[in-house]
Specification:
heterodimer, A: mainly alpha, 0% strand, flat, B: mainly alpha, 2 helices, 68% helix, rod-shaped
Chain lengths: 311, 62
Amino acid sequence: MADVPYHNPDYDPVFGDYVALLKPRVMSLVVFTAFVGLMAAPVALHPVEAFCAILFIAIGAGASGSLNMWWDADIDAIMRRTKSRPIPSGRTTPDAALGLGVALSGLSVLMLGLAANWHAAAWLAFTIFFYAVVYTMWLKRATPQNIVIGGAAGAFPPLIGWVAATGSVSIEAVLMFALIFMWTPPHFWALALFMRSDYDDAKVPMLTVTHGRPSTRRHILVYAVLQAALAISLAFTSVGGLIYFSVALVCNVIVLKDAVRIWRRDEVNSEADDFKVERAFFKFSLFYLFVHFLAILAEALLVPYGFGGWS
Amino acid sequence: MSIRVESDMHRRRRSQNVGVAVCLVLFIGLVMVLSLVKITNSGPVEGYDHAPRPALADEVSQ
């Protein structure tokens, strides 16, 4: 973190600038995956308790996003993708982001403990710590494995949703965590392949810079294979079923096909078509995660009607 | 020169104040509803107070 005066003294922030510090787009993914984790759990919470659990998991994720923006303001100002964020664009101060992040972290953990249980609250506290301290402050600028380890923070919400309902961790929760954990690296490495100057300029040690682009392409393939194995295995647990299995099978065949194409391509091919395959892989991977969790949700919602599962 | 009653700064600060106020009201409402749900779902609450409860006394002695 660098002490750079970003704030424009002639600008008073509006409420939306503080909302932007919470990374609303990331929060929407957190809400969705945590909701699926909670709905797929075998224990039903009261709707108000479930709503509060999801809300405070989302606020906890937003708080860690705010702490991330506070610490990373210097590199956010360099990268094209992030330079319009509230701090580098001068709309809020780093101190405001720090204060908001710390306050909402405490509030979200406390309220999740009261609304659901303290086991879930402890997982949320660990997730915020992991994202803000372990990933943002420590690993992001230190190792090319930053995305691999940092991906864990984004993978916790379905597990926290599950624990909020059941009070304990089970194989289903671990596999949902593992699916997002394994999905994150190839998703961001594909992005790094076609947004190369951003990470290079910010001196963030992405795999593309430290190990080279052919190595990144191999890594994408290996992770896509591991991801497919995890996604398919989830079908044979209590949250899976025929619908989920069909979706996972189709999606993973597509991802593996694209991953093989990325692995076989070199920079000349990629430059020639402006990274068409890498861009397609990145876009499809967003859909991939959404549709997997949607299938788990469908399985859970159809059980009372005699569908869902393998029966 | 006329005096501008409302400047852009006022508008922005009002946006902050209204946003914070709405969040606080919603939070208070949420805590109240959550408390009601927790209390009503925790089963009948009965204990010793200043009024005699023979039924409870019998239960304890047994």
